[in-house]
Amino acid sequence: MHEDRLFPADPGERSIARRLYAEVAGLPIVSPHGHTDPAWFAYDEPFPNPAELLVVPDHYVLRMLYSQGVRLEELGVPRLDGTTVEGGPVEGDPRRIWRTVAEHWHAFRATPSRLWWEHALAEVFGVTERLTPQSADAIYDRIADCLSKPEFRPRALFERFGIEALATTEGALDPLEHHKAIRESGWQGRVVTTFRPDTVVDPDTPGFVANLEELGRITGEDTFTWRGYLAALAARRRDFMAAGATATDHGHPTAFTADLPPAEAEVLFNRVAAGRPGPQDAELFRGQMLTEMARMSLEDGLVMQLHSGVRRGHNAWMQRVFGANRGDDIPTRSEFVDNLRPLLDRFGNEPGLTLILFTLDETTYSRELAPLAGHYPALRLGPPWWFHDSPEGMWRYRQRITETAGFYNTVGFNDDTRAFPSIPARHDVARRVDCAFLARLVAEHRIDEDEALEVATDLAYRLAKQAYRL
Amino acid sequence: MHEDRLFPADPGERSIARRLYAEVAGLPIVSPHGHTDPAWFAYDEPFPNPAELLVVPDHYVLRMLYSQGVRLEELGVPRLDGTTVEGGPVEGDPRRIWRTVAEHWHAFRATPSRLWWEHALAEVFGVTERLTPQSADAIYDRIADCLSKPEFRPRALFERFGIEALATTEGALDPLEHHKAIRESGWQGRVVTTFRPDTVVDPDTPGFVANLEELGRITGEDTFTWRGYLAALAARRRDFMAAGATATDHGHPTAFTADLPPAEAEVLFNRVAAGRPGPQDAELFRGQMLTEMARMSLEDGLVMQLHSGVRRGHNAWMQRVFGANRGDDIPTRSEFVDNLRPLLDRFGNEPGLTLILFTLDETTYSRELAPLAGHYPALRLGPPWWFHDSPEGMWRYRQRITETAGFYNTVGFNDDTRAFPSIPARHDVARRVDCAFLARLVAEHRIDEDEALEVATDLAYRLAKQAYRL
Amino acid sequence: MHEDRLFPADPGERSIARRLYAEVAGLPIVSPHGHTDPAWFAYDEPFPNPAELLVVPDHYVLRMLYSQGVRLEELGVPRLDGTTVEGGPVEGDPRRIWRTVAEHWHAFRATPSRLWWEHALAEVFGVTERLTPQSADAIYDRIADCLSKPEFRPRALFERFGIEALATTEGALDPLEHHKAIRESGWQGRVVTTFRPDTVVDPDTPGFVANLEELGRITGEDTFTWRGYLAALAARRRDFMAAGATATDHGHPTAFTADLPPAEAEVLFNRVAAGRPGPQDAELFRGQMLTEMARMSLEDGLVMQLHSGVRRGHNAWMQRVFGANRGDDIPTRSEFVDNLRPLLDRFGNEPGLTLILFTLDETTYSRELAPLAGHYPALRLGPPWWFHDSPEGMWRYRQRITETAGFYNTVGFNDDTRAFPSIPARHDVARRVDCAFLARLVAEHRIDEDEALEVATDLAYRLAKQAYRL
């Protein structure tokens, strides 16, 4: 890993970027949004092998290899029904999976997956060679060897990574037992949960009515009345706060919001709770629930995150045969100006609310999101998300958002990852790109270097802590 | 202010940019579109104080501070109903308003507001320190002191700024008395008006029918007949031309145009003039009127500007409590290909018509606007507008438009400002960014430096004069 | 032509770009998609004169000059009805047409047309002066002189350009006689056809029913039955393969696809074949036919190209008076995520199918196309198309696509041109810009230089050959 990676080539800009980065490179990691598994930290068991750690759960890696003609079975992904297929059974040898990745490693050139892998291999496992079919076995052996040692267990890595706080994400019906186990273990690492109620607020969720029933069972509320349902959600929010949560997260197909009169909301709820939604009811109910969640956030102080605008499971065959999160979620066009208006009409002027917006439609950066966040006190902009969590994606984000919304209506970086060893890599990429962006502003005399240094620190550390109330 | 600000960091590019800029920095300012107050030039009274000059009327500044949790009352903006609110009354001390800005000055880092302020403070008022809570009082005093001197009155500044021509914008019902006063004063500064008929062509305007009545009163036409209404508009255009106007300006929600048969247009007019528009009538009538205005432009020679694609007054509470133009106008997705077709079918092939298009939806630059302007003789593209009137915004504009439309289907720069002291700053930013863009083309051997110099001059001066017939 | 044109200004990046370019500059040209005339290569007759070679057929040049107020008649473009017009008859003197271009040459500054012309003038005809009104006659004479020599005939130029394979595009009803003549001539140049069935699959085509009749006549099938129609298309595909075709090409208004049950498809076909399509039938039928074509491609191995998202003939007057392809085709907003789903549900997981997507809506690069191509094995992304086949357009394409789809889900370069002398210029621009893009990645330590060199070669040569099975 070159020490100047991701810095501008111009020597003047590069030297400024180096100076800025030197000040932020070692700051603690605040990871306020992500999808790591709390069980890792609760029980601190060793990770099984390189393929199961780095390949099988990483949908970025799966999708790229699949697009190049590699079958998921060759990558160790089993079919839901357990059958094998023409071409052989599911690959069970992690070393062979690893070799398949190495054979197609060129496909990842200039992708963030490559940056994250190389950082993890070099910084976490001390691998300095490039991954090739020739080097694959030796690298596999080295990582496998590391994984057998105590200093590569989850808690040791957490501490070595310098993580000050890490948020996982759990559904509204989650028993939060791993978080309980973490707290009871006496380990000092700060791992908190995040309240993600999608499966009990989205009537399109398979099993939605059963989910309501389960929500009632957990909370002791009558979740088939509007009042009881809202009380149950408020109760679960309290449970999550007891497990450290400072935020909620909402994954919706669109940013549509609604603010119905209470009686209409109740009638709508009664239709969806009875499993008899009308054609527009699911979207309307999701929209209404975002506004209800904003109301509850004003009451209990949880920060609200909205991740919208993705067509989940675009590949029907893959969904059927392999299930969700295999790399076939595709972004869609998004709209915030009309969609958020009902919620903003109700709560947009409240400085006590923080609603953090994420998008996969970069056209909304300069047209909608920056103007909205540059006006409403309740709005903040999350970092570039998913496909755009990459050097070019980060540049586009800063270039299109900063002039209208400034730096201080954004909230620093979220790694949003399921891949634990990639956390330091992802934060490092963000810190480097922000320093590179700021270096250009300094070199072009658009801000002074002392100001850039303050901004770099805020983007790397302080803004995330502050926005997420961590 | 660093003399190389906004120039590329690469030394080779920078030296080309410097050479180009040296030739255009001192050219006169042609300001063919903006929102300064003609009364300033008519009566030449001193500006009251730094806050009322630079803060209270600047919706860019208001919105950023509001987004960061500052109440508008703290910035001296009164509620429409005169009430005070929790947290105290409206701030009446301009010095305290100034201090509030200074306390939040970091929020403006890397925004164009910051560039404009610093330019105005340095070049107009000789302030060389950075604005901070510590320096706020001294800077306030210096500006206040300047404002008391004759050389800081509007006409003196107009001359010092090197303004060759300045267009203000007045509504169709404006008596144009300030423009009359300017002409009668014997002062030689060229300040002209622009005909903006929105309130008499947009049936969604509150008081639309009363406006038609007033239009009839002013012109002596029967504005409740289609023929009389059109005659009244033609008459008002002549009045505006007598006050120096060379252009009209149209602020529409969309770029929709229509070209109805005359009898249908008349029937439509009768519905809207009676205050009984059908559900689609307002949009249809606005669209028809753009085509009627194009027809009149071909007759009387006024250049036509279209500013479309913004949701005015997105924040209902703010509109109700504080009124319009407080920073809550939000851009929307725009469409030009189908929307402009009726007007273009009628007049797009007329080299005698000039229709200048502006957009807040940057996705239309390369997809719609450059291809349209690169074909129709009647179309020209206005400079990056409002949120995009910024260094990055200008780069995006040139990068996405030039390869399809060239430089010569664009019309130079418009400052579009209400903030008089920012005029030189805004033109300076545009000149610097255009020189930086051209320097890159020269450095990459895409055009020669002698050509770049000609283009730089055209963009800074000649194209605006020519396109607006000034 | 400067040897470093289009390379970054930074000396470090530039030296990397030079090294990469040195390795790919001389690679053979693979031109798998374009619109040159096979008759040129069949009969090898001299090109008539500079204006008819470089101006009259080039709609890029026509539209820019027209936008600047030049009438098409002045450029030698006749009216369809043969009439002359106010301002004089159609210009018949190619030298005067040439002079008109020279007088407006400044309008092309920083456009790709200018790059292509200068390359052709310098590299093909040895012209080293800039085109100006003063130099126009001498340059005209030099080119005219060249055109009279045998080494400037089509086949000699083909060989001099280093073209390894060139695909033209012919409609489904084309007799392919020129391709037959090429093969029978014994000349060794590889010129192949491409099957473009738009006029027999798009019910909105004027004369669609007559086209079906003609398709029946050519193939001996009953093209007024669904079964016979499909058999006729399959037969024509075989004919095209016999003339060297390795690909089909589909120009559709949108990327809409459908996958109807066979019985419904047949009923739909019966309505359109009878000339009585319902209001949505044309779009539905086009969409169904894309899926049918994908099915046939899986059978016969032809690669499939989809060019969608353009409003052809936007200028009604120009269409009526001058006809098609005069520079008034305007891109529109495009959508791929929902539109392609029916086809992808059916065939997206087939590694044996290659569907190459092109777009004029750059907002789809990072939002839709890269995520789709980064997942589905059947999808590949074509190079930046038409308005975006330009240095800035190519940068945007690589910057927005690579991080999600990598380089290896793209297919290298297509020149897509009707202007034969511009072929080397266009490939040279693409090679230079790709090397510049790769040089930046190397300079920022995002990939290593040996990898960049491999990618540069793949983008310049290997990927096109492989994707198009040439």
TrEMBL record, chains A, B, C:
UniProt entry tagged with the keyword Calcium: no
Pfam families recorded: UxaC
Domain of life: Bacteria
Any one biological process term the GO annotation gives: D-galacturonate catabolic process
UniProt entry keywords in alphabetical sequence: Isomerase
Keyword Isomerase applies: yes
Catalytic reactions of this protein: D-glucuronate = D-fructuronate; aldehydo-D-galacturonate = keto-D-tagaturonate
First-tier enzyme category under EC: isomerase
Pathway recorded for this protein: Carbohydrate metabolism; pentose and glucuronate interconversion
InterPro entries associated with the record: Metal_Hydrolase (IPR032466), Uronate_isomerase (IPR003766)
GO molecular-function term, one example from the UniProt record: glucuronate isomerase activity
Record-listed E.C. numbers: 5.3.1.12
HAMAP family xrefs: UxaC (MF_00675)
Family according to the record: Belongs to the metallo-dependent hydrolases superfamily. Uronate isomerase family.
Protein name: Uronate isomerase
Organism: Thalassobaculum fulvum
Record gene name: uxaC
